Amino acid sequence: MEEKIPLPKRDGNNMQKDDLEIISGIINENKFEDILEIGTYNGYSAIFLINNCKTIKNFVTVDYIPKDRKRTTLKGSGFSPEEIENFSNKLSELKKKYNIKKLEIRTEGSNNFFKDNKKTFDVIIIDGDHSYEQSKRDLENALKVIRKRGVIIMHDIRDSSYVQNLPPEENCTRTFKECKLKKELKKTSLGLGIIWPKSQN
Ligand SMILES: C[S@@+](CC[C@H](N)C(=O)[O-])C[C@H]1O[C@@H](n2cnc3c(N)ncnc32)[C@H](O)[C@@H]1O
Questions:
Q1: pLDDT tens, 64-78?
Q2: For burial by CB atoms within 10 Å, which of 56, 94, 136, 168 has the most?
Q3: Which residue's alpha carbon is at the smallest distance from atom 22 of ligand 1?
């Protein structure tokens, strides 16, 4: 049996178990292989999905390093540069220690990542800057590189509560609401917005 990688310490900024179970279900059912995640944080969701989805061949996760913060984010994430750097270093150590070849850690903001990216993906998880402006930009960029059968998953799509201290009309809830593509809202504790951009039915 393959060894499970130890999960980073969980805190309130990580996805909840119900969110991650739904995402793993989608990946496993569709035998998805190539995943992109915007918003690594401490790597909890990335490691959980790698542990629970054997079909994953490549998992790219993107979060900025301190020097990139100024030019990449609009409203910021609320985490200090030191915290982000600490998470990034710890995840890199884990990758090295457990030889996680399928994990690619990109230390840059999503705008920079999409500027140079030439890859396409089966699943794109948007869990970075939750402002309306940046989540809309992430969704637009994701739509350019999602594969035909692929799915885009937006985290923290809650109707009435505040996300990242922003009211619903200024956060990613609005981005999801405005999206005209085939979509469904999973009412998990934090809310998952599932978008099937190229689906015919
Ligand atoms: C809610 S946390 C992600 C949690 C993680 N997905 C998990 O469940 O373990 C959001 C992360 O997005 C990052 N972030 C914010 N804006 C970003 C951007 N424009 N590009 C990449 N990452 C961004 C923040 O630095 C923060 O680490």
A1: 765 544 444 434 456
A2: 56
A3: 63
Residue whose CA lies nearest to ligand 1 atom number 14: 128
Residue 7 domain flag: no
Q: What is the pLDDT of residues 28-37, one digit of tens each?
A: 999 999 999 9
Structural domain of residue 68, as residue ranges? Answer: 17-196
Asked whether the beta carbons of 141 and 110 are under 8 A apart, the reply is yes
The CATH number assigned to the domain holding 64 equals: 3.40.50.150
Torsion angle of C-alpha atoms 95, 109, 57, 146, degrees rounded to 10: 170
- Residue of 21, 63, 72, 74 with the most ligand 1 atoms within 8 Å of its CB, for mutation: 63
Domain count, the chain: 1
pLDDT at 192 over 60: yes
